[in-house]
Amino acid sequence: EVRAARRLTVNEVIARHQAAARLQAARVTHTISSGTLTLTFEAPGFPAPVTIASETIIYAAPGRTELEQRSIRVNGLEFRGGSVPRLPIIEPERVVSPPLAITLSDLYRYELDGEAPQNGTRCYVVSFTPLDPDASLFSGRAWIAMDSFAMVRVAAAQTRLRGSIVSAEQVDDFREAAPGIWLLEQSDVRQI
């Protein structure tokens, strides 16, 4: 007599997500994404925050990603000129293997934090932390669809960075573009 379904372990959830991600990568080899990039930061000598906005197109293919920015605006005024204005380096160093895109390894500790809906999709909630507390890796949570094991949302913070950026937080939301194909819909990155 069966009274309830067996609950999946965190390792089973991650393994099924990785299998779904490999299947999607085989089906979708090239993407062109367009959107708006808005960057707001405080700079010494400026009385108010500086906001830079641009139309952005991302071209992605196996082993290559290129970014094109058009209509660059600084504090609402379109920048016109022969070269891009000198700006502080905004991007921190990036880890080599983002969480849940890696095979199960000794870099992260994973825990299943239960189930929760995300944008109308029932999801497993998986938390991850680096095994080495001194490593510059991500800590956070991922929402993985219970039916397709696709990534629906991931929220992570990267600390212990070297340089002027000391931490970076990122929240990525995905949507189902076609049956079984989940693509990035929005990415919100905040850096200190």
Top keywords for this entry?
mainly beta; four-stranded antiparallel beta sheet; 192 residues; six-stranded antiparallel beta sheet; 10 strands
Q: Can you give a write-up of this model?
A:
The chain is mostly beta strands and 192 residues long. Helix content is 9%, strand content 49%. The chain has one helix spanning 10-27; strands at 31-41, 50-61, 64-74, 77-78, 108-118, 121-130, 138-145, 151-158, 168-178, 181-191. The strands form two sheets. It has a six-stranded antiparallel β-sheet, covered by helices on one side. The chain has a four-stranded antiparallel β-sheet with strand order 1-2-3-4, with no helix packed on it. The model has no long low-confidence stretch (mean pLDDT 84).
Give the helices and strands, then pairings:
Elements lengths: L9 H18 L3 E11 L8 E12 L2 E11 L2 E2 L29 E11 L2 E10 L7 E8 L5 E8 L9 E11 L2 E11 L1
Antiparallel strand pairs: 1-2, 2-3, 3-4, 5-6, 6-7, 7-8, 8-9, 9-10
